[in-house]
Protein backbone atom coordinates (compact mmCIF):
# COMPACT_ATOMS: atom_id res chain seq x y z
CA UNK A 1 0.00 0.00 0.00
CA UNK A 2 2.85 2.36 0.82
CA UNK A 3 4.41 1.70 -2.57
CA UNK A 4 1.13 2.58 -4.29
CA UNK A 5 0.79 5.80 -2.31
CA UNK A 6 4.37 6.82 -3.11
CA UNK A 7 3.80 6.13 -6.81
CA UNK A 8 0.53 8.04 -6.74
CA UNK A 9 2.24 10.97 -5.00
CA UNK A 10 4.97 11.03 -7.66
CA UNK A 11 2.38 11.01 -10.41
CA UNK A 12 0.40 13.87 -8.82
CA UNK A 13 3.62 15.91 -8.48
CA UNK A 14 4.47 15.22 -12.12
CA UNK A 15 1.02 16.30 -13.30
CA UNK A 16 1.22 19.45 -11.15
CA UNK A 17 4.61 20.26 -12.59
CA UNK A 18 3.42 19.51 -16.12
CA UNK A 19 0.52 21.90 -15.64
CA UNK A 20 2.95 24.76 -16.24
CA UNK A 21 4.13 23.35 -19.59
CA UNK A 22 2.05 24.51 -22.60
CA UNK A 23 2.59 21.21 -24.44
CA UNK A 24 1.36 19.26 -21.41
CA UNK A 25 -1.68 21.54 -21.14
CA UNK A 26 -2.55 20.88 -24.78
CA UNK A 27 -2.18 17.10 -24.32
CA UNK A 28 -4.31 17.17 -21.17
CA UNK A 29 -6.99 19.22 -22.90
CA UNK A 30 -7.00 16.87 -25.90
CA UNK A 31 -7.24 13.83 -23.62
CA UNK A 32 -10.24 15.33 -21.79
CA UNK A 33 -11.91 16.23 -25.10
CA UNK A 34 -11.25 12.75 -26.48
CA UNK A 35 -12.69 11.02 -23.42
CA UNK A 36 -15.72 13.32 -23.34
CA UNK A 37 -16.39 12.91 -27.06
CA UNK A 38 -16.21 9.13 -26.75
CA UNK A 39 -18.43 9.20 -23.69
CA UNK A 40 -21.12 11.33 -25.31
CA UNK A 41 -20.92 9.40 -28.57
CA UNK A 42 -21.37 6.01 -26.93
CA UNK A 43 -24.13 7.34 -24.69
CA UNK A 44 -26.00 8.89 -27.60
CA UNK A 45 -25.45 6.42 -30.43
CA UNK A 46 -25.01 3.15 -28.57
CA UNK A 47 -27.50 3.98 -25.80
CA UNK A 48 -25.10 3.37 -22.91
CA UNK A 49 -25.50 5.13 -19.57
CA UNK A 50 -22.97 7.97 -19.13
CA UNK A 51 -20.90 6.01 -16.60
CA UNK A 52 -20.87 2.94 -18.85
CA UNK A 53 -19.97 5.09 -21.86
CA UNK A 54 -17.10 6.73 -19.97
CA UNK A 55 -15.92 3.32 -18.74
CA UNK A 56 -16.01 1.97 -22.30
CA UNK A 57 -14.07 5.00 -23.56
CA UNK A 58 -11.35 4.53 -20.95
CA UNK A 59 -10.93 0.78 -21.42
CA UNK A 60 -10.90 1.22 -25.19
CA UNK A 61 -8.16 3.87 -25.16
CA UNK A 62 -6.13 2.01 -22.57
CA UNK A 63 -6.36 -1.11 -24.80
CA UNK A 64 -7.70 -3.19 -21.90
CA UNK A 65 -10.88 -4.13 -23.74
CA UNK A 66 -12.68 -6.39 -21.26
CA UNK A 67 -15.35 -7.20 -23.82
CA UNK A 68 -18.30 -6.46 -21.57
CA UNK A 69 -19.36 -3.62 -23.90
CA UNK A 70 -19.05 -3.57 -27.67
CA UNK A 71 -20.42 -1.20 -30.30
CA UNK A 72 -23.68 -2.58 -31.70
CA UNK A 73 -24.23 -0.21 -34.62
CA UNK A 74 -22.16 0.07 -37.79
CA UNK A 75 -21.66 3.78 -37.11
CA UNK A 76 -20.47 2.92 -33.60
CA UNK A 77 -17.98 0.41 -34.98
CA UNK A 78 -16.60 2.91 -37.50
CA UNK A 79 -16.32 5.58 -34.81
CA UNK A 80 -14.51 3.13 -32.52
CA UNK A 81 -11.92 2.35 -35.19
CA UNK A 82 -11.10 6.05 -35.63
CA UNK A 83 -11.35 6.65 -31.88
CA UNK A 84 -8.80 3.92 -31.15
CA UNK A 85 -6.24 5.08 -33.71
CA UNK A 86 -6.38 8.73 -32.68
CA UNK A 87 -6.90 8.17 -28.97
CA UNK A 88 -4.11 5.66 -28.37
CA UNK A 89 -1.53 7.93 -29.97
CA UNK A 90 -2.74 10.80 -27.82
CA UNK A 91 -2.74 8.66 -24.69
CA UNK A 92 0.83 7.47 -25.35
CA UNK A 93 2.02 11.08 -25.83
CA UNK A 94 0.25 12.15 -22.62
CA UNK A 95 1.63 9.23 -20.60
CA UNK A 96 5.10 9.92 -22.00
CA UNK A 97 4.90 13.51 -20.78
CA UNK A 98 3.86 12.37 -17.30
CA UNK A 99 6.74 9.87 -17.25
CA UNK A 100 9.12 12.64 -18.33
CA UNK A 101 8.13 14.79 -15.37
CA UNK A 102 8.33 11.86 -12.95
CA UNK A 103 11.89 11.19 -14.12
CA UNK A 104 12.72 14.90 -13.94
CA UNK A 105 11.53 15.02 -10.31
CA UNK A 106 13.62 11.95 -9.46
CA UNK A 107 16.73 13.47 -11.04
CA UNK A 108 16.25 16.73 -9.14
CA UNK A 109 15.80 14.90 -5.83
CA UNK A 110 18.95 12.92 -6.50
CA UNK A 111 20.85 16.13 -7.29
CA UNK A 112 19.58 17.78 -4.09
CA UNK A 113 20.72 14.81 -2.00
CA UNK A 114 24.09 14.88 -3.72
CA UNK A 115 24.56 18.59 -2.92
CA UNK A 116 23.56 18.13 0.74
CA UNK A 117 26.00 15.26 1.22
CA UNK A 118 29.17 16.48 2.96
CA UNK A 119 32.34 16.22 0.90
CA UNK A 120 35.22 14.31 2.42
From TrEMBL:
Gene3D superfamilies, sorted: 1.10.287.70
GO biological process, one term: stabilization of membrane potential
Membrane topology designation: Multi-pass membrane protein
GO CC terms: plasma membrane
Segments traversing the membrane: 24-43, 81-104
Keywords assigned by UniProt, alphabetized: Ion channel, Ion transport, Membrane, Transmembrane, Transmembrane helix, Transport
Subcellular location: Membrane
Domain Potassium channel, chain residue ranges per copy: 30-102
Record-linked Pfam families: Ion_trans_2
Listed GO MF terms: outward rectifier potassium channel activity; potassium ion leak channel activity
Major localization listed first in the record, in broad terms: membrane
Keyword Iron: no
PANTHER family, alphabetized: IP11374P (PTHR11003:SF291), POTASSIUM CHANNEL, SUBFAMILY K (PTHR11003)
Protein name: Two pore domain potassium channel family protein
Amino acid sequence: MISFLMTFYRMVRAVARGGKDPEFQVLLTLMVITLLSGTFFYAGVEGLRLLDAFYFSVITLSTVGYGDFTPQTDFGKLFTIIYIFTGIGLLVAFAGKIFHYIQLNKMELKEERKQKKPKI
